[in-house]
Amino acid sequence: DVKVTQSSRYLVKRTGEKVFLECVQDMDHENMFWYRQDPGLGLRLIYFSYDVKMKEKGDIPEGYSVSREKKERFSLILESASTNQTSMYLCASSLRAMGTLSYEQYFGPGTRLTVT
Amino acid sequence: AQSVTQPDIHITVSEGASLELRCNYSYGATPYLFWYVQSPGQGLQLLLKYFSGDTLVQGIKGFEAEFKRSQSSFNLRKPSVHWSDAAEYFCAVGPYSGGGADGLTFGKGTHLIIQP
Predict the structure, then answer these.
(1) DSSP letter string over B12-78?
(2) Contact A102 B30 (CB under 8 A)
(3) How far A42 CA lies from chain B's nearest CA (Å)?
(4) Which tens digits make up the pLDDT trace of A17-68?
């Protein structure tokens, strides 16, 4: 079974703090993704990575950065947390698609971040 | 840009009744389509996927979905729902048109409520 784990299920941080969310997958997947989930807005892609040290912006990258130093680990960084970044953060991984075949994504359990 | 519409924010169904959740997509090429389910406090779990071939696909937990290209739809169905099916359901389309890795675009979700 594919396993995607996230470092924390719940996190409370203060405005202005630097926040690290960690994600680890154990299936040697090339692709990794960070989404945020908000009621009524569904899942929105923040950043993704298709290889070590490679990253691409998603739909809402502002206020976030990412790091992928090892294939199995993908970190989301909030440089200076703000209250509007209070949300559920979901990490996912997938195989790199061959040709035009898109592989399904496997999700972690999520981190509910509250910024006060 | 690609998009996914789930027209029903909430659906209430009696236990044992049939279910259909609607999904419409906008995509410039042949889409790859997915349905995910999210139980409260959990990450997303893949129910089923369509890549090509038979337009009626079977998934886990007794779910099925039908791809209709002429209607740009990929509706999810179940003949008889169980109380444990109460959850949030997400439709997704890929690959991501933003370039880079093989991301997905998600709908905003449909919240399924099961009445006893």
Answers:
(1) EEETTS-EEE--EEE-SS--EEEEEEE-TT--EEEEEEE-SS-SEEE-GGG-EEEEEGGGTEEEEEE
(2) no
(3) 4
(4) 999 999 999 999 999 999 999 988 889 989 999 889 889 898 899 999 999 9
